[in-house]
């Protein structure tokens, strides 16, 4: 298997969306955020429609990478990082900054994003879930600055092959080069990967979804990695 790590591109939005959603669709807690009649194919289509705008919006602070199977040309994993404010105006990690597009394309991508609407999300459950997480997130970020890993997903058939680690290491090298701590919020599935690369759990949040039909609580792990200068 040959895998290439490169910058995300709007032209690969459908393939990237497929990797993102197929990875998340294994998690029943994530699936429960959508109304029962919403299928994975519908979520994938909506994600592909929204993704070009998500890639180019916030271009100054966001860095996006994908892993591509060199044999099939398919995107198999995606990572999004957010630079700290003090580095936004600097030329940091430019090879992972999505290429700028024309004003006409920006308008087109924004309209595609807006046309998707609420994506079939259960907004009451989303708010119930998000409120405590956002409170902890805001408190932790006061101890920054951080290079934040905002999203990391690998398609199921490519998991446990070191691809997520490849994307993770790329960002951590940037963090170390600039003396930055790194920060991520993880589900239980990702904790071991992050711990293996130096992250430590600093706080957890367990949410009981029973009033929304959930069968068991779900725990989120807030994790920080200190900068590790080269020796």
UniProtKB/TrEMBL annotation:
Pfam families: Acetyltransf_1. PANTHER family: GNAT FAMILY ACETYLTRANSFERASE, N-ACETYLTRANSFERASE DOMAIN-CONTAINING PROTEIN. Residues 96-228 form the N-acetyltransferase domain. This is N-acetyltransferase domain-containing protein. Transmembrane segments: none annotated.
């Amino acid at each position: 298997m040959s895998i290439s790590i490169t910058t995300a591109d709007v032209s690969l939005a459908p393939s990237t969306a497929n990797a993102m959603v197929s990875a998340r669709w294994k998690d029943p807690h994530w699936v429960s955020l959508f109304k029962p009649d919403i299928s994975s194919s519908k979520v994938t289509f909506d994600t592909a429609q929204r993704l070009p705008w998500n890639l180019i919006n916030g271009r100054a602070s966001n860095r996006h990478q994908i892993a591509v199977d060199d044999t099939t040309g398919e995107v198999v994993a995606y990572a999004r990082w957010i630079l700290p404010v003090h580095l936004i105006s600097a030329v940091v990690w430019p090879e992972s900054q999505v290429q700028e597009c024309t004003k006409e394309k920006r308008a087109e991508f924004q309209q595609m994003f807006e046309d998707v609407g609420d994506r079939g999300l259960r907004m009451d459950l989303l708010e119930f879930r998000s409120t405590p997480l956002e409170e902890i997130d805001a408190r932790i970020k006061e101890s920054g600055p951080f290079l934040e890993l905002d999203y990391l997903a690998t398609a199921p058939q490519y998991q446990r092959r070191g691809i997520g680690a490849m994307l993770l290491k790329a960002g951590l090298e940037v963090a170390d080069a600039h003396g930055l701590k790194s920060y991520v919020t993880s589900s239980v599935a990702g904790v071991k990967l992050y711990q293996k690369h130096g992250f430590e759990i600093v706080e957890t949040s367990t949410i009981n979804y029973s009033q929304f039909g959930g069968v068991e609580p779900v725990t989120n792990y807030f994790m920080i990695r200190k900068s590790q200068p080269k020796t």
